[in-house]
Design goal:
Largest sheet: none
CATH topology of one domain: MetI-like fold
CATH class of one domain: Mainly Alpha
CATH architecture of one domain: Orthogonal Bundle
Oligomer: single chain
CATH superfamily of one domain: MetI-like
Radius of gyration: 23 Å
Strand content: under 5%
Number of helices: 11
Shape: globular
Number of strands: 0
Length: about 290
Amino acid sequence: MSEASIKAGEVVARRTMARNALRLLRTAPATAWFGMIVIVSYGVLALFAPLIAPYGESQVMGDAYLPSSTAHWLGTDQLGRDMLTRLIYGARNTIGIALITVLLSFSLGGTLGILSAIFRGWLDQVLGRIVDVFMSIPQLIFALMLLSIVGSSATNIILIIALLDSTRFYRISRSVAMNVVVMDYVEAARLRGENTSWIMFREILPNILPTLVAEFGLRFCFVFLTISALSFLGLGIQPPTADWGSMVRENATLITYGKFTPLLPAGAIALLTVAVNFVVDWFLHKTSGLRDEK
């Protein structure tokens, strides 16, 4: 086959994938569209925060707890910083750290889970017992204990939560991979002499990826909420860096005065969590093979 024909085939394949993606999006329900719009909006805020935010992340603009005005649409916080600016930068910091954490835990847990399913034996037993130990301790309490020892920095938060959360990815990847490693095409790959990486990433992973992607979305919500909870307790993202969890803590006393300021970051957390769950539910439904009800 000539190089020109190969390139033409690749172009046709890409166009087919694009058409299938568009067809899939057209059939998405209103809840999934709502979730995708919210996620994209948050992503734009996170990526272009310095261009969108009216002021600097830690810039003090006036007196504390100023009401909403044309200069400060959502008022100011306890130090006189613009709340809208803090919310926009909070999207970048909170979502960015959560996304990096989930990607790291997904890679670590998913790889170890597939390896356990392939080799079984002593490797499966050792990894399984280590995971049992980590999962026997509540994640938030374990994270609080480790962060109080090593210190609350962004790097420590990412590494600790990724390590603890990788146990969940390990369990589900091992479980679904166990049903795939016994298939004929995997055995055929072994008989052809394919190495372990080929079997992992070309034979097993494509067949369990929908389940792992759905789990990725769910774990992102849990990690996102865990980071916000740690910040609320004072051991997460440290000031003056904007973070939605710490913003709730810093302005919590205003609730007693009937002010809505603490509800703004709390609402941002809740909205993103609901949006991700809407998209994950739709994705699970589409990959399950069930037909839509008419």
